[in-house]
From TrEMBL:
Membrane-crossing residue ranges in chain numbering: 273-293
Source species of the chain: Planotetraspora mira
Signal peptide location: 1-25
Listed InterPro entries: 5peptide_repeat (IPR001646), Pentapeptide-BTB/POZ_domain (IPR051082)
Protein name: Pentapeptide repeat-containing protein
Pfam families: Pentapeptide
PANTHER family assigned to the protein according to its UniProt record, in alphabetical order: BTB_POZ DOMAIN-CONTAINING PROTEIN KCTD9 (PTHR14136:SF17)
Keywords, ordered alphabetically: Membrane, Signal, Transmembrane, Transmembrane helix
Length: 392
């Protein structure tokens, strides 16, 4: 779920710190800035002061100091930024597909909705970097350090994160489908409703991670550790995990503990074996009613998890729709109709609050109602912006 609500431009400029104000001032159309395709800056050649929406396709920026630069909306496709310093750099909405950022310093990078598809970030340092809603599909992030980074709703399908450090990462609703995460660490990570379907989690560590609603179906968890992990559901996983909490939901094919006891040695069962079997059957009968109730609670919990994930995704999509219109207005130097725009923002906040307090599928309806109301207001704001475009 999104952590930062987009604000109207005037309010944002009034309260943001200087660096953020600079990053949002004078919105531009991606690629409309300086044309620097294929340029080589490794020999100390000066960079333009304004790099917003610059075209730096295939540019060479290895070891270049870009600290605190504003590259919002820039095109950096296939650019080489090996060992470059991008700490506190703004690359919101930027296109970094295929870029090489190996060994780069990405500390506190601002990469909201940036496109990193197929990018290479091997051994990069990205502590406290922000990648909410970013696309990192098939990116190579081997041994990257993402401690305390924000990967909320990021797309990491088929990404290579072997040996990555993701301690205390915020990755709510992030998608790690088919990602390679062998030896990765997620200690104290926030992974609520994240997706790990068919991912390789062999020897990964999830110490004290919050896995509420996380989908691990098809994931390989051989030798993965889950010390004190919260709300772990191993349904449909492959392999045998270690240090699994007592309250975790285990795969259904765990096997029958009596299998092999009755196999014997080809002779009739001995008296001790018969007594053991009878005792087990008696215990099973005693626990039958409890087991039925427990399964019912588990089914109810699973149904709620599915419903909540759907609600989270709907609220997230609504937030992205708000972001898209907000960005369009900034590019066009427009201010949206205040009433409809504020109504949409208020509805988004109401939906988030509803999700926060919801405990049952029925209570999730409040979030759905807020989203419906907000989308109506957002559509009205979008029509007004379109009318201004046509008049212009």
């Amino acid at each position: 779920m999104r952590r930062i609500t987009p604000l109207i431009v005037a309010a944002f400029l009034a309260i943001a710190p200087a660096t953020a104000v600079q990053a949002s001032a004078g919105p531009c159309k991606p690629g409309s800035g300086p044309h620097l395709r294929g340029k080589d800056f490794t020999d100390g050649a000066p960079l333009p002061a304004d790099l917003r929406c610059a075209d730096l396709t295939k540019a060479k920026l290895d070891e270049v100091d870009l600290t605190q630069k504003d590259l919002t909306g820039a095109i950096l496709r296939d650019a080489s930024l090996k060992e470059a310093d991008l700490s506190q750099v703004h690359v919101e909405y930027a296109d970094l597909r295929g870029a090489d950022l190996s060994d780069a310093d990405l500390g506190q990078l601002r990469a909201k909705q940036a496109d990193f598809r197929g990018a290479v970030l091997i051994d990069a340092e990205a502590g406290q970097a922000e990648f909410p809603h970013a696309d990192l599909t098939e990116a190579v992030l081997t041994r990257i350090v993402l401690t305390q980074a924000d990967l909320t709703d990021a797309d990491l399908k088929d990404a290579d994160l072997r040996g990555a450090e993701l301690g205390q990462v915020k990755a709510r609703t992030a998608d790690f489908t088919r990602a390679r995460l062998r030896d990765a660490t997620f200690d104290q990570a926030e992974l609520q409703y994240a997706v790990f379907k068919d991912a390789d989690l062999e020897k990964a560590q999830f110490t004290q991670a919050n896995l509420q609603g996380a989908d691990l179906r098809g994931a390989g968890v051989k030798d993965a550790t889950f010390v004190q992990a919260d709300d772990l559901n191993l349904t449909g996983t492959r392999g045998s995990a270690e240090d699994v909490p007592d309250d975790a939901i285990l795969p259904t094919d765990a096997g029958n503990p009596l299998t092999g006891v009755l196999a014997g040695s080809g002779q009739g069962p001995s008296t001790p074996v018969v007594l053991i079997v009878l005792s087990a059957l008696g215990l099973g009968a005693t626990l039958m009613i409890w087991g039925a109730a427990h399964r019912h609670r588990r089914r109810s919990s699973a149904e709620y998890a599915i419903a909540r994930r759907a609600a989270e995704e709907d609220v997230t999509r609504f937030g992205e729709e708000i972001d898209a219109l907000d960005f369009e207005m900034k590019i066009s130097r427009l201010s949206g109709p205040s009433a409809e725009w504020q109504t949409a923002l208020d509805a988004y906040e109401a939906a988030k609050r509803s999700l926060l307090i919801a405990q049952t599928p029925q209570e999730l309806q409040g979030a759905a109602a807020a989203v419906r109301h907000g989308r109506q207001a957002l559509e009205a704001a979008r029509r007004s912006v379109s009318d201004v475009h046509r008049q212009g």
